[in-house]
Amino acid sequence: VMVAEALDISRETYFAILMDRACNGPVMVGSPQGGVDIEEVAVTSPELIFKEEIDIFEGVKDHQALQMAKNLGFQGPLQQQAADQIKKLYNLFLKIDATQVEVNPFGETPEGQVVCFDAKINFDDNAEFRQKEIFAMDDKSENEPIENEAAKYDLKYIGLDGNIACFVNGAGLAMATCDIISLNGGKPANFLDLGGGVKEAQVYQAFKLLTADPKVKML
């Protein structure tokens, strides 16, 4: 049981730090319109979405954090509070090997405090060896049994609804294979990436997993 203090929210904003392939690194994304689906805001009010690239060598600079706080509509002493929170969130992002730290709402209380009221964090699976305590909390009971079995052999498996099994070396090629199957009227049964440096035992286990799937009709 987790017990947390109940807080009133006087204003809601949106803030996130995430990896952006187009920028080859982390970016800050913010909007003064929080507490709602950010994708909806991007469609209806794109001018309210603010994006700032982060230099991986220098981190979030003071002026960047302050500017984002201004963009989010924080005023007076709350502006510096928000900037400090933004820098702490980036430090968290690095410390836990996150691929995304999303705070929605990132808001303020009637008493004049900036608070992360709700957050969603995604972790880099490749950093599990550094983040054993975090990954130990993963509730694998929510996964498909075949996904848990694949993970035992370092195989990246995602189940899909089709009947054509995909057995591919490389995530990019695996996605392209799924796309080609779909474009030609078929339906992929899975996404399976063997990854680099694959060993004979992994190939064997991958074949076992795919052929044991009752919905698979071809490979």
UniProtKB/TrEMBL annotation:
**Cofactor(s) listed:** Mg(2+)
Which PANTHER family does this chain map to?
SUCCINATE--COA LIGASE [GDP-FORMING] SUBUNIT BETA, MITOCHONDRIAL, SUCCINYL-COA SYNTHETASE BETA CHAIN
Name of the protein in its database record:
SUCB2 ligase
**What is the top-level taxon of the source organism?**
Eukaryota
SUPFAM superfamilies reported in the protein's UniProt record:
Glutathione synthetase ATP-binding domain-like, Succinyl-CoA synthetase domains
Molecular functions per Gene Ontology: metal ion binding; nucleotide binding; succinate-CoA ligase (GDP-forming) activity
**Which positions fall inside the ATP-grasp fold succinyl-CoA synthetase-type domain?**
1-106
Keywords assigned: Ligase, Magnesium, Metal-binding, Nucleotide-binding
- Record-annotated ATP-citrate synthase/succinyl-CoA ligase C-terminal domain positions: 168-219
Keyword Nucleotide-binding recorded: yes
This entry carries the following GO cellular component terms, namely:
mitochondrion; succinate-CoA ligase complex
| Bilayer-crossing regions | none
Q: In which pathway does it act?
A: Carbohydrate metabolism; tricarboxylic acid cycle; succinate from succinyl-CoA (ligase route): step 1/1
**Keyword Ligase tagged:** yes
Q: Which Pfam families match?
A: ATP-grasp_2, Ligase_CoA
InterPro entries noted in UniProt: ATP-grasp_succ-CoA_synth-type, Succ-CoA_synthase_bsu_CS, SUCC_ACL_C, Succinyl-CoA_synth-like
Q: What's an example GO BP annotation here?
A: succinyl-CoA metabolic process
